[in-house]
Amino acid sequence: GKEISVKNTFVWLVVISQVVTATCYIFQIRSKKAYPTVSTWIIFFVGCALSFLTYIIAENHDIRSGIFNTSDLVYVAAILVVVILWGKRECKTKEDECEEEIRKAFEKWYLVGAGVIMAYGLITGNAWKSNVLTQILMTFAYFPMWHKMVLQKRNTESFFGWIPISAVFALYPAVHEGNMLSVIYALRALILCLATMSMMAYYQVRQK
Questions:
Q1: How far is CA 201 from the centre of its chain?
Q2: Structure confidence by residue, pLDDT tens digits, 87-104
Q3: 189, 71 contact by CB (below 8 A)
Q4: Considering only CA atoms, which of 23, 32, 111 is closest in space to residue 75?
Q5: Which one in 98, 100, 143, 200 has a CA-CA gap of 20 to 30 Å to 107?
Q6: Would you state the pLDDT for residue 187?
Q7: d(CA 200, CA 179)
Q8: 3-class SS letters over 83-96
Q9: Average pLDDT of the chain?
Q10: What share of the chain has pLDDT > 90, as a percent?
Q11: Cα–Cα nearest to 80, from 28, 42, 23
């Protein structure tokens, strides 16, 4: 009926907006206007993959209601590949070296956290709680990127990569179906992307 048609429209809006923002972000990375790090996107990929896995188990493969997590996994995988191919690798300053040391330590503990959540899910069989724990873990994934901007006192990202339009679109099918895990995923992404963009804008203004 009409409700299904509206839901499908929002599902497609999520996919289309992800494709557009990914394309713009990739162009920014390729043209050296954004400087994301490989480890940051490895962390995001691990979180997204674990979130997707626990989601499809907990929600009986309801991909449409959880379309944002699905498209986000593809989005993050694509950006990771691009950063590996064209991203900045060398450490030129002491700040870069300091940031990399902290990032490596963070990455180790983040992966340990992901392993603990996987073990919890396997032992308890509770994919729903495992997914919620993964959302908490994914919140910490933003910290290395924020730390990099604070340390370098400049905006190192592209606004195209963090516009949370997909999260906004994703809320409709999630709320419509009463899918709490999808709602949590979309709200987490929306809040953290807005926080990231606020920090980016702050340092962008300071650079001028």
A1: 19
A2: 765 556 666 677 778 888
A3: no
A4: 23
A5: 200
A6: 97
A7: 32
A8: HHHHCCCCCCCHHH
A9: 91
A10: 67
A11: 42
pLDDT tens digits for 15-70? 999 999 999 999 999 988 888 888 889 999 999 999 999 999 999 888 888 999 99
Tokens 């209601």 appear where?
65
What's the CA angle centered on 114, arms 174 and 97, to 5 degrees?
115
Sequence-separated (6 or more) residues with CB below 8 Å from residue 4? none
166 touches 18 (CB < 8 A) = yes
Q: Cβ distance 197 to 165 under 8 Å? A: no
Q: Average pLDDT in the 149-172 region?
A: 92
Q: CA–CA separation, 117 vs 114, rounded Å?
A: 5
Residue 10 has a pLDDT of 95
Task: Look up residue 126 and give its DSSP letter.
Answer: -
> First CA to last CA across the chain, in angstroms?
52
* 144-149: Cβ within 8 A, 24+ apart: 144/37, 144/39, 144/40, 144/43, 144/99, 144/102, 144/103, 144/106, 144/107, 145/36, 145/37, 145/40, 145/196, 146/196, 146/199, 147/99, 147/102, 147/103, 148/37, 148/99, 148/103, 149/199, 149/200, 149/203
Q: What was the pLDDT predicted at 156? A: 87
Q: Provide the percentage of residues in the chain whose pLDDT is more than 70.
A: 94
